[in-house]
Design goal:
This protein is an alpha/beta fold and 301 residues long. It contains twelve helices and eleven strands. Helix content is 39%, strand content 21%. Strands 3, 4, 5, 6, 7, 8, 9, 10 and 11 form a nine-stranded mixed beta sheet that branches. Strands 1-2 form a two-stranded antiparallel sheet. Helix 1 (7-19) packs across helix 3, helix 1 (7-19) packs across helix 4 (63-86) and helix 2 crosses helix 3. The protein is elongated and about 70 Å long. The termini are far apart.
Length: 301
């Protein structure tokens, strides 16, 4: 008689399928790669099928693995519904894990300062605020919700515009006093240090700002982190583009060529199969209300 695999083995399989690499999946689950590999081999032995092809790039699902993925994701959705409807506690509060993927700047300057209110209202929720260069994918079930810089073109997701936001050039008064006057965008290419992203580490084309200000401009002091760029600009390292909700909040900065304003958009993305979960809908409602309150910072007059 075939043994029923441990649920941990199914979770390991799911993590590898979504991450595409055993080591990355192990890191996401907080275990070592050896443990992850052992769980996978145990699952494959018990069901009598190979679930992944092992390639130089990582793990690729076999036909049996694709079929298994659909079944395990259905199990995961059922477990989520049980947790919400049967494990919410006597007061009906939400429970379980909520993982949200956000851009670093939006997470740090808009969401994180207000998140305590949502967390206090739902004390049984574990909230993962993933704020990094790049986004986790709701379509691959890496996150429950993601706020991205563009609308997904494909995948089993539901997406809608969350808000537009404005960006412009900033510098410190000390930097401007020590460098040639700026009367037009073309002056930026003459005797000025520009702060910006590392080109080959850009995770979204929407982050290419400088060429939109003036063709041919290139940063000479670069970072993959918008918060690091902000600190560089405030310290006098140069002139750079920042979201207005960052630049306007820092009294050490002043706008440069304020008429050269850039507009981008935030998109809220959720998986079709899980968007109706109570914890996902609760965060969506809270986030929309937060954005409405912060509209003046996102799109200043």
């Amino acid at each position: 008689m075939m043994q029923v695999p441990d649920w941990n083995d199914y979770q390991a399989f799911l993590a590898i399928a979504r991450a595409g690499q055993l080591a990355r999946a192990a890191a996401a689950m907080g275990v070592d790669a050896t443990t992850m590999g052992r769980r996978l081999r145990r699952l494959e032995t018990r069901i009598g099928a190979t679930l992944f092809e092992h390639t130089r790039e990582g793990q690729v699902l076999t036909e049996a693995g694709e079929a298994m993925l659909a079944e395990v994701e259905a199990m995961e959705r059922a477990a989520s519904r049980i947790a919400e409807h049967g494990g919410g506690g006597a007061n009906g509060s939400l429970a379980g894990l909520l993982r949200v993927s956000l851009s670093e700047g939006f997470a740090s300057w808009i969401v994180a300062p207000a998140l305590h209110a949502f967390a206090t209202a739902h004390p049984r929720l574990v909230i993962d605020l993933v704020a990094s260069s790049g986004f986790l994918s709701p379509s691959k079930r890496e996150a429950d919700l993601a706020v991205t810089l563009s609308r997904p073109r494909a995948g089993p997701v539901i997406a809608g515009k969350l808000s537009d936001y404005a960006l412009r050039l900033y510098a410190s008064p000390e930097y401007l006093a020590d460098h040639a006057p700026l009367r037009r965008a073309g002056d930026l290419a003459r005797g000025h240090s520009l702060v910006g992203y590392v080109p080959d580490l850009l995770y979204a084309p929407e982050l290419r700002y400088l060429a939109e200000i003036e063709p041919g401009l290139a940063a000479t002091v670069r970072s993959s982190s918008i918060n690091a760029q902000h600190r560089l600009i405030a310290a006098g390292a140069g002139i750079g583009v920042l979201p207005c909700f960052i630049g306007d909040a820092d009294a050490r900065l002043v706008p440069v060529l304020p008429e050269r304003r850039i507009t981008r958009s935030f998109w809220l993305v959720m998986h079709k199969d899980t968007h109706s979960l109570a914890r996902v809908q609760a965060f969506k409602v809270w986030l929309n209300a937060l954005v409405e309150r912060e509209r003046g910072r996102l799109l200043p007059a």
